[in-house]
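Hi R.,

Here's the chain you asked about this morning:
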Amino acid sequence: MAESKENVLMEKIVSLCKRRGFIYQSSEIYGGINGFWDYGPLGAELKRNVKELWWNTMTRQRDDVVGLEATIIMSPQIWKASGHVDTFSDPMIDCKTCKGRFRADQTHEIPCPQKPSKMVSECHGEKTPPRAFNLMFQTYVGPVQDDSAIAYLRPETAQAIFAQFKNVLETSRQKVPFGIAQVGKAFRNEVTPRNFTFRSREFEQMELEFFIKPDEVVEAIAGRVASTAEIGNRKSEIGNPDWGWEAWHKYWVEQRIAFYEGIGLPRTTLVEYWQKPEELAHYARACVDILFTFPFGTQELEGIAARSDFDLSQHERFSGKPMGVFEEELRTAWNQLPKEKQDALWRRYYENRKKYLVKMGVAEETAARDATEDANGLAKGQYIPHVIEPSAGVDRLILALIANAYSEDQMPDEKGKPETRVVLKFHPRVAPIKVAVLPLLKNKPELVKKAQAVRDQLRPWMNVFYDDAGAIGRRYRRQDEAGTPFCITIDFDTLGEKPELQDTVTMRHRDDGKQERLAIGELLNWLLPKIR
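And the predicted structure, written out as tokens:
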């Protein structure tokens, strides 16, 4: 049977990634190690660009988000509190015939060991019953390898944010609502890594935990909770006092889609999937998955979840340390409410807290007592913040950008004959190389000297690639495959062969091959708005 077009495209993408230095298989000279990938020169630049754009968008361009960089190994109690120790698992089966090990929900096709982008049918031998397989990588801290020294490589970056919430709140001079952002490595011991870099055992996440007031606190202070229908017309008024969790959730969904649009993934390439009630995690009030259509199917890039107060509450219970906040504004507003309003808000807050505690296995009587104490805290200006969590995978996004940018078209060669061209049409903001500087001939010292001067002029501001090897057309094609949006050619007119063109260069556009003359003195101002 002929291979599907999607698999052919994926093969081309994998080949290009290795050929041009985007992504290599880890430990390749020793046969590789499944689920681990190394980023080459172009891949490292692409990945750095994406992470820095995310960081700038989420922290430096906002007054209400600060950053954190936490350790990969943390107290194992953190993972106990978060539920990862007990519940973070996949169903696994073994084949008694081929001795392979697979996820129970992926028994029809598995990744081909020789070709990571290709799927092959699994054998039909007798399988063992499914059993839980914890996805966390276990390690030991200290010289003695016993149960007291067990630790884990973090399976996500979020929990460190929750564990450090109070420290960040007290040292950053922030007030709820505010967010804490982190970019970093995470590790999951996937049973069957698959689809190139999409599902790996080592990966990077870009996560924001945006802490907000519970709706009962919002209503006590603002007198109402804004509906989501209102928010669509009030995006310029970020952080209105009457925004509850639904408003903030909708806001962050729109913010994240706008980010993707700004780096070259149009809204038409994305799918918003609102999880159904039965699909939600037990603590979540809502979750939107932002999906992208990869060559191997439509899959998740990012999830934006309304996680209630579950995370901070869990760490408060397990650590014994208070994770709530005090706000004088709430205490003042509460004391001015009519008694019936106080009672109604108290009751709602109590019911939500009790429901959470019972779900976590707390006895009914104890849960009622603890929930009463929590609800009584409202009158004192105390509450546990809720959180909205946009969580994106860096590696998945890199793969989406490459897949979206990959294109083949016809373009004339130096003799005017049409030839097939492979080109990565990255948005200039994420392109690994922003501009290539090319002297027309490398055996003409005056051309080389001028080209190197142009390179040095631009280099402090952007990643510049200098190339003087081969015919100019071949050099253009190499840059097309690297995704470089602009090529600058230094020719004899630059040196004054035509006096009116002296100190001008040829600017060649990647996507359509069109060229124009620009003065060297204008290059920086011309390029900067296009690459930022």
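The longest strand covers residues 202-212.

Let me know if you need anything else.
M.
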